[in-house]
Amino acid sequence: MSSPQTDTRSGPLAGIRVLDFSRILSGPYASMVLADLGAEVIKIEPLERGDETRAFPPFIGDMSHYYIALNRSKKSVTLDLKSPEGIRIAKELAAQSDIVIENFRPGVMDRLGLGYPALKAENPKLVYCSITGFGKDSPHGNKPAFDIVAQALSGVMSVNREPGQAPNKLGLPLGDMAGSIFSLFGVLAALHERHVTGHGRHVEVAMLDSLIAMQGYLSQIYFVTGQTPQPVGTQHPSIVPYGSFATADGHVIVACLTERFWHNFARCIGRPELIEDPRFAAYETRLQNRAELEPIILGAMGREGTAYWLERLSEFDVPNAPILSVGEALEQEHVAAHRLVETVDHPELGPMRLVRGPILFDGEGPSAAAPPSRLGADTAQVLREKLGYSEARLRELQRASVIGATGDESAEPREHAAQQ
């Protein structure tokens, strides 16, 4: 078992402690960002199996890619939350924490005795964040909610397709991610308020609400016109030309968001007369005549390859991009220049490449990450240092199956990352 990490995090949230009961993605992503920002994150996991994502292939050694992606720089503590003693320990940790994050169905934490009212009574300054699929007052009630469920109910799948094709989910797990992102807004706002009032808050975020909130102009198209937006594939529902266009050997993205870019683009493809053509001279007329304009564009761009058009579009100052694979995106020069990928040295599994957080403070990104912990690897250290438990008490709790390994094999500090 890997050795426990020491409290050497730096950043704007250094000194803030997070007790994280969440699992899978919506919740773990939020707590990972808080760790990137300097908070100490103690992740509570079930005995034996831990977070369900520990079992999701593929693996590095026996550690899941999924768990690695969402749990860097956290301490893993195993507790039996079905036992009174496990609940008591969780309450002790919550009493010494600034933030609690959980993503169980509504009512689960209350039934365990770990809901906001119970923990607030012992720690009035606690910022308690609940991430759910639908929220406690939703007619969807206690239905299980995963990313694809939220995407389907939000309307996003209906427009994420080419016209006439079957609905498709986003490649990114945005239903889960949106819940985490909005929870971060709420948690950080509540922390700020706590400095003024001395009291915490119960922050509640539903995944479905978060996705609907992110629809932006799509919702407003419906409110303004009474018509639900229709799928346009990579194109834009109200701006033309904007999207992916076929070349002689591939595709290239063109984004003419302003009239200046449209004029530049018309000259770029050798059709300057389109600028004054009444069918295409304004946003509204281009949208109305999309079916006439796009074949003209495709006819021009289909005569040359992608490399030619990327160079020419840049020459004419037209926003453009190649369409990269995930691997190509991670290996591109931009990623290296911004140091978005770092390598951490796991004590048993060796080097791991991780994507860093994107937020810079005074030009600097997050402090180097610690590799994800083995299941329960930090239990003994946390209970010793935070709660003052003796070795005898730790052994007693282990024998009673309230906690996992005592961590005696974890005396050495964790190795920290070397930035790539």
Walk me through what this model shows:
It is built from 18 helices and 13 strands. It has helices spanning 28-36, 65-70, 84-95, 108-112, 116-122, 147-154, 156-159, 174-197, 207-213, 217-225, 259-268, 283-288, 290-301, 306-315, 326-331, 333-337, 379-387, 391-399, and strands spanning 17-20, 40-45, 59-60, 63-64, 74-78, 99-102, 127-132, 202-206, 242-246, 251-255, 320-322, 341-346, 350-355. The longest helix has 24 residues, at 174-197. The chain has two domains: 17-213 and 361-399, Crotonobetainyl-coa:carnitine coa-transferase, domain 1 (Rossmann fold), CATH 3.40.50.10540; 242-324, formyl-coa transferase, domain 3, CATH 3.30.1540. It has a six-stranded parallel beta sheet with strand order 5-2-1-6-7-8, sandwiched between helices. Strands 9-10-11 form a three-stranded antiparallel beta sheet, covered by helices on one side. Strands 3-4 form a two-stranded antiparallel sheet. Helix 6 (147-154) packs across helix 9 (207-213). The radius of gyration is 26 Å and the shape is elongated. It is an alpha/beta fold. The protein is 38% helix and 14% strand. A hairpin with a 3-residue loop joins strand 12 (341-346) and strand 13. Keywords: Transferase. This is CoA:oxalate CoA-transferase. It comes from Alloyangia pacifica. InterPro entries: CoA-transferase_III_domain, CoA-Trfase_fam_III, CoA-Trfase_III_dom3_sf, CoA-Trfase_III_dom_1_sf. GO terms for molecular function: CoA-transferase activity.
